[in-house]
Every structure is written in structure tokens, then in C-alpha cells.
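Each lists chain and fold; for instance:
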Amino acid sequence: MQPDPCLRVARPLWTEFTGELHRRTEGRHESGAFLLGRKVEDSRRTLSLVYYDELDPQAYDSGVCVLHADAFGRLWDHCADLGLTVVADAHVHGRGAGQSRSDRENPMIAHPGHLALILPLMARIPVRRWAIGIYEYLGDHQWRAHGGCKVARILKIEDEQ
């Protein structure tokens, strides 16, 4: 069994991120973002964010997060400009943090080891870490779930970076 991944986010960036995800829901649809940073083996450090609707203005039109193909070209260009890579993606659900069938079948980044976070309750503050769903993509539409008490071992919200 492979080791658990580690995703590090500075507390000020996490606070901005969760607040902005909630604001972008407009109280009626999902919202999402890519977490950008650097990877070293199983550890990832988040340094920047890009929200789905910045890459694709129609990302939330259906009520759920849908990115069209050209958004990914903009994502890769943005990463190249910053010298960063995608370390995870995240989106909100209206209720719990379980993966929907669509989430399982349509990973934002279909690369083994990619992390997808689901924040419950439209990321309404306070977002409780134990309530977040973290899903690790294994390839071939298979996932490993890291939820509940496992989240604190994987998602490190740090006071300093």
C-alpha cells in the first residue's frame, strides 16, 4: 500500500480559499478551484489558487462544476507563467462531502496520485476539516477515499509556510 499523500496550505490562503469558494456559489450552485504549488514525492505545498470560473466563465452554468476543454489550456498556461503545478482540485457540494458518480467518472486531473477535495455545505464558514472529503485518484476511474479522522493526517493547514 502506498503512503498517504500530504497537502500543505498556509492558514491565510486556506481562509481566503474557503471564503471565496463559498462566495462564488452565490448560494445556489457548486464552485471550485485548482490548488497550485509544488510537489516533492508525496508532499504538496499550495502556493496559489485559480478558480474554475476564471478559467471557464460558464463553469457553473449547469449548477455543478463543468470545465470545457479550452479551460485546461488556460490552466496549463497559468501554471507555466507561475512556475507551479496543480497539486489538487477542490469543489463544494450543497450537503455532504461524498463523491458523486459524476465526480468519480470525470476526474478534473486524471493522473494517478491527484487529490480531489470536496467541501460540504457550500464551504460555509467554518469549514470543519473532518467534514471534508479527500479523494486520491488511482487511475482507471478508481479512487482511494481519505475522510473523517484521516483528513487531518493529509490536509495540513499551517500557521506559517
